[in-house]
Amino acid sequence: FGEQPLRGRRVLVSAGPTYEDIDPVRFIGNRSSGRMGFAVAAAARDAGAEVTLVAGPVSLPTPAGVTRIDVRSARDMQEAVLKAARGSDIYIGAAAVGDYRPVDTADHKLKKTDGSPLRLELAENPDIIASLASLPDRPFLVGFAAETKELAAYAQDKMLRKGIDMIAANEVGPGRGFEVAENALQLYWRDGGAALSRMPKTELARRLVAHIAQRFLAGIGT
Ligand code: PMT
């Protein structure tokens, strides 16, 4: 496909964690640094695509030439992604979207109780990539799967359940997947897959994008 297989294509990438506010000073978040998603955005740009990056709260510089939209919660991210998905050819969901949020966000800082447990009631967040899967004119959908065990089985199940085209599975845990500069990915699509061994996220993202471009172009008969 040459050096720039995604020339003229629009790619939308999500990256980073989401923060679900408990009160004005506390939130529920996760360990995602955004590094993987930012590397994917830069790799898609290098593959010739026009790239939009929807980023949760992270402290990373925007890759040159990439349009960035900052969000905080999963619902903010869903709104931004749904808006930007119109006209996108490919969506790559590298964000670690919070599955739950507090039912209520307190207006003022919660005070300590008298020693009795504090209970937080949580509501399920929308599944962003699954909501894209049900759109009539949907982009080619690539999800990530962050697992601590049974990588292959859980990832393939996620791909089918969410109705997406491809999934990039990584093992996560202390020093693995999240935050660190290196990662390894197991890729799955309906009738195949590929293993990408441990390497810097920048290089891994380039290889991932090459696979995505190949599957995407095969799907549209190019
Ligand atoms: O950011 P880094 O520190 O570099 O770490 C990279 C990473 C480990 C966060 C990244 O490689 C990764 O695995 N991202 C996905 C993390 C995740 O939330 O996976 P999941 O298995 O919970 O979700 C599966 C897929 O559904 C993902 O594409 C996710 O974006 C999407 N999803 C999940 C929940 C939800 N409510 N909406 C979604 O769209």
UniProtKB/TrEMBL annotation:
A single Gene Ontology CC term: phosphopantothenoylcysteine decarboxylase complex
Keyword flag Chaperone: no
Coiled-coil intervals: none
One GO term (biological process): pantothenate catabolic process
EC number: 4.1.1.36, 6.3.2.5
The record's free-text note on cofactor binding: Binds 1 FMN per subunit.
Keyword annotations of the record: Decarboxylase, Flavoprotein, FMN, Ligase, Lyase, Magnesium, Metal-binding, Multifunctional enzyme
Transmembrane segments: none
Residues annotated for CTP binding in this entry: 99, 109, 126-129, 144, 158, 162
Cofactor(s) named in the record: Mg(2+); FMN
GO molecular function: FMN binding; metal ion binding; phosphopantothenate--cysteine ligase activity; phosphopantothenoylcysteine decarboxylase activity
Tree of life domain: Bacteria
DNA/pantothenate metabolism flavoprotein C-terminal domain sequence ranges: 6-214
Pathway annotation: Cofactor biosynthesis; coenzyme A biosynthesis; CoA from (R)-pantothenate: step 3/5; Cofactor biosynthesis; coenzyme A biosynthesis; CoA from (R)-pantothenate: step 2/5
Reaction(s) the record says it catalyses: (R)-4'-phosphopantothenate + L-cysteine + CTP = N-[(R)-4-phosphopantothenoyl]-L-cysteine + CMP + diphosphate + H(+); N-[(R)-4-phosphopantothenoyl]-L-cysteine + H(+) = (R)-4'-phosphopantetheine + CO2
Region: Phosphopantothenate--cysteine ligase, residue numbers: 11-222
Family to which the UniProt record says this protein belongs: In the C-terminal section; belongs to the PPC synthetase family.
Function: Catalyzes two sequential steps in the biosynthesis of coenzyme A. In the first step cysteine is conjugated to 4'-phosphopantothenate to form 4-phosphopantothenoylcysteine. In the second step the latter compound is decarboxylated to form 4'-phosphopantotheine. Catalyzes two steps in the biosynthesis of coenzyme A. In the first step cysteine is conjugated to 4'-phosphopantothenate to form 4-phosphopantothenoylcysteine, in the latter compound is decarboxylated to form 4'-phosphopantotheine.
The protein's name: Coenzyme A biosynthesis bifunctional protein CoaBC
Protein source organism: Luteibacter rhizovicinus DSM 16549
Lineage, highest ranks first: Bacteria, Pseudomonadati, Pseudomonadota, Gammaproteobacteria, Lysobacterales
